[in-house]
């Protein structure tokens, strides 16, 4: 999961990003309200965590502009004031949930997960691709009913592919979802990871196909 965090307090933002990363949530951070919409346009995020008190453009203006252009990304609003007016206002403007500062990391995490579950249609079903099954609850893969052993990177890669079945993903799109800090990783690294993953999937009944100019897609072998 990758979220955009719009928060102008550097200490809070840094702490949150690091803490979230420990739980498998990658966070990109912007400190100015004006940077939120361009960042969301540049990259696909699973959710936006939005502080209301932002310089440049405040959180409520950001939210209004975001919904006005038809963006349905789940938004969790952070508010410094536990004010009913503010909550009602931000819900009207299109927030999905809100959290008053100060908050516990565990609460933020639980709210984020709930938001994503709702966004993806309540209960997360198992995902199938031929004989390959991913169980979001146990976070494990099985192949022909047997647990599939993968390295953490291969696991992350395969999870991205099964989440986006039928939709080709470019190297950059995959990299975005698999690696937290791509400054250290070249998109070509995906080729190496893909090579290893394909070796594991040889004659398994499922394969990763390369669609020229579009990217990689996971599909059952026919
Ligand atoms: Ca603030």
Structure write-up:
- The structure is a single chain.
- This protein has helices at residues 10-22, 36-42, 59-68, 84-92, 105-119, 152-163, 171-178, 188-200; strands at 2-6, 26-30, 47-51, 75-79, 97-100, 127-129, 132-135, 140-143, 146-147, 206-211, 215-220.
- It is of the alpha/beta class and 222 residues long.
- It has 2 domains: 2-119, 3-Layer(aba) Sandwich (Rossmann fold); 127-220, Orthogonal Bundle (Arc Repressor Mutant, subunit A), CATH 1.10.10.
- A hairpin with a 3-residue loop joins strand 10 (206-211) and strand 11 (215-220).
- The mean pLDDT is 86.
- Residues 8-9, 51, 53-54 line the site of calcium ion (CA).
Helix amount: 25-40%
Please report the number of helical segments.
8
- At the first level of CATH, the class of the largest domain is Alpha Beta
Number of domains: 2
Mean pLDDT: 86
CATH architecture annotation name of the largest domain: 3-Layer(aba) Sandwich
Query: Radius of gyration in whole Å, from Cα?
Result: 19 Å
Sketch the major β-sheet: 5 strands, parallel
Helix-strand pattern: EHEHEHEHEHEEEEHHHEE
Report the structural category: alpha/beta
Global shape: elongated
